[in-house]
Amino acid sequence: MSERLTPAGRIEIDGRIFNPYSKDFIRNPDPSWQVLLRDYPIAWHKDLQMWLISSHELCDRLLKDTRFSPYFGHWEHAPPPKAEADKNDFDRAYERGFFAVTNREHLRLRKLTMPAFSRPVMGRIDAKIRDLVVGCFDEIGDADSFDAYTALAAKIPVRAIARMVGVPTDMEAFFHQFAVDIIKCTRINIGPKEREAAMRATLPGFEYFKTVIAERRALPHPGDDFIGNLVGAVENGERLDDYEILSVIFALITAGSDTATDLHTYLLHALLSHPDQLALLRQQPELMENAIIECLRWGSFGKMPFFRFAVADTEFAGQLIRKGQGIGVNISAAWHDPAKWPDPTRLDITRRLDGNIVFGSGAHFCIGTYLVRVQGSLMLNEFMRRYPDATLADGTGDIDYEYTHHNARRINRLIVRTHLRQRQPRAA
């Protein structure tokens, strides 16, 4: 079974060991992850043409290691750098963003953006999105069943992030596509033509936000909301320029819109598949934050890993990684690593989650973490309040997946039975 080379040689695997595009993998990934964790915690994937790192310990180490960059431009197969005159808004915003700048500039960006992520601003966001979560459930009403994907997952994240950055409700579909295209622009598992098309498709969105930023700059006070705080931020006399603000907006979008779509289906699937855990959460609502993280760990909805790129020839975990080579940081597998999580396929919302990397690790820890947690807790609280007897239809939710999704094991059908009609008193 083992295909290991000598310790001094390169360990190599192929699609027979790990195929993220396989329907069998998307439906049930854990067997593949366990093979990787046991036999190939680090290996060169000949079909994906990247290193794959899967153990929790190695993923955590690599995400904190500054020899590996998240900047797409460091990839050996990245498009050649453009002349300044040929750069578009996407190019300029990306080059000014968290993933591309030096460590010193990254620290500066973090300091300048902290006011936009302060507790008061986030508290206002909580209040802003509470009604839209309630509104999604109002649309479901007292139906005997509903599809959690179409009724909740496809609506709440894009509406929440759009409201956070001030997008009008009649532009939500436009905004959602903008978010999807931004994510595609730097995926190394997508062909160059598709990446280029996605980049061109982002340009109207950047133009929209440039107009919003200009309007805020023209005001006596830019406002105390998210964008207003970015426009008004000052640190040692320095301010964010337009492209730095755009870079923060698109970093938040990638964290909080398309990716967060999977949050809602995986939370409901996890808890409705484990009625004892759902009952415990009802009894101990103070477990909510821990429950959200544990459900995400248990579900592990990532299909493709995070990408990092070696900035120089580097030895890591006994393997030589050449400058420019891509590294897939397979955190979905790491979330199921028995060396870190005893009995990893067991859902336990009381589990100690110290040291988890569900939201990443190191300097690039996910900036959308708070928004994800707020969305998840608001949705679950409203769900439990309205549907105390809810179950998955036929015990499985008639679950199905979007097998062609570029990044996630996306559930695109999960039928929930509310049993509300059984609770209604019969007419005399």
Concise description?
This protein is α+β, with helices and mostly antiparallel strands and 428 residues long. The chain has a single domain (12-423), classed as Cytochrome P450 (Cytochrome p450, Orthogonal Bundle), CATH 1.10.630.10.
Main sheet record: 6 strands, mixed
Shape: globular
Number of helices: 18
Give Rg in angstroms: 22 Å
Instruction: Please bin the fraction of helical residues.
Output: 40-55%
Question: Any idea how many domains?
Answer: 1
Q: Output the strand order for the largest sheet.
A: 1-2-3-9-6-4
Number of strands: 13
CATH class: Mainly Alpha
Judging by the overall fold, what is the CATH architecture? Orthogonal Bundle
CATH homologous superfamily - what is it?
Cytochrome P450
Low-confidence stretches: 1-7
Mean pLDDT: 88
| Strand residue content | 5-15%
Q: Could you describe the 3D structure shown?
A:
The longest helix is centred in the middle third of the chain and has 26 residues, at 192-217. Residues 1-7 have low confidence and may be disordered. With 428 residues, the chain is of the alpha+beta class. It has a single domain (12-423), classed as Cytochrome p450 (Orthogonal Bundle), CATH 1.10.630.10. Helix 8 runs antiparallel to helix 12 (242-258) and helix 13 (261-273) packs across helix 15. The strands form four sheets. Strands 1-2-3-9-6-4 form a six-stranded mixed sheet, covered by helices on one side. It has a three-stranded antiparallel sheet with strand order 5-13-10. Helix content is 47%, strand content 9%.
